[in-house]
Amino acid sequence: MGRVLTIALALSMGWGCETEVDPNGHEQQVGYRTGTRDDGYTSNGERGNVNITEVMWAGSISDDGVHDPDDIFIELQNKHPRPIHLTGWQLTVRAGHHSDGLFHESRSERSSVTHTLPARAGGQIIEPNEFVIIAARADGAWQDPDFVVPELRLADAPFAITLRDRDERLIDGAGDERKLPFAGAMDGVTARSMERIQLIFNNRGNRDGSWHTYSLNDFDQEERKALHDSLRVRVREGYKSYSLATPGHPNSPDYSGYISSGSFE
């Protein structure tokens, strides 16, 4: 009974799900990479211990009205109780657009690009509950990005994002390449991000009900305006009027009604 319980616990923690080959050519289970000097300051994870919490796919708009559709970011949050490094983790973006700009039903005609994350800027570890952003540009609207991936692109079209750890374990996902973006917008005046809703149960990133659009405005009443300003401190001056997102900070309030979904009965 004790052995069965140990095996069940190991599987539930994600141990034994992946293997790697040792120097003698023998397969062995992949254990934790703890992020210390002994394992080269790398970490692995378990499904759900890092969440994709915000996607700014609509680009940025400067205060003088210039839209840059490639000035995007993806935000992650470390939900694990231990600090981690994301060096070597894989971020895959699948798009429902072919190179001709048309939407195709055939999965084989959809593009898929995998980006390998570099070390975090400054080499710092990511603390529990900390937010980090992966940006396409270091000098865009999003101040002090934690990771810069110049090739990162998110079309104004169906897309899906998949995050895998260094040992290729599936960690989290966002969006669906068969559907238009779940939330967020570029309405001709403002660009707003797609933010993750804090559901009690079934908070899967590939469900449209798990996301909402950035919800605050410059013209809100005093208390909400103060929150609007405090959540956007990493939006650079010169972009604050029309680029509405919360890079590196908690998301804006959710008014969808999903926030307390679920039951303990």
Q: Could you characterize what this model shows?
A:
It contains 2 helices and 17 strands. The protein is mainly beta and 265 residues long. It has one domain: Immunoglobulin-like (Sandwich). The strands form 5 sheets. A 6-stranded mixed sheet has the order 10-9-6-3-15-16, with no helix packed on it. Strands 8-7-11-12 form a 4-stranded antiparallel sheet, with no helix packed on it. The chain has a 3-stranded mixed sheet with strand order 13-14-17, with no helix packed on it. The longest helix has 11 residues. The protein is globular and about 50 Å long. The N terminus and C terminus are likely disordered.
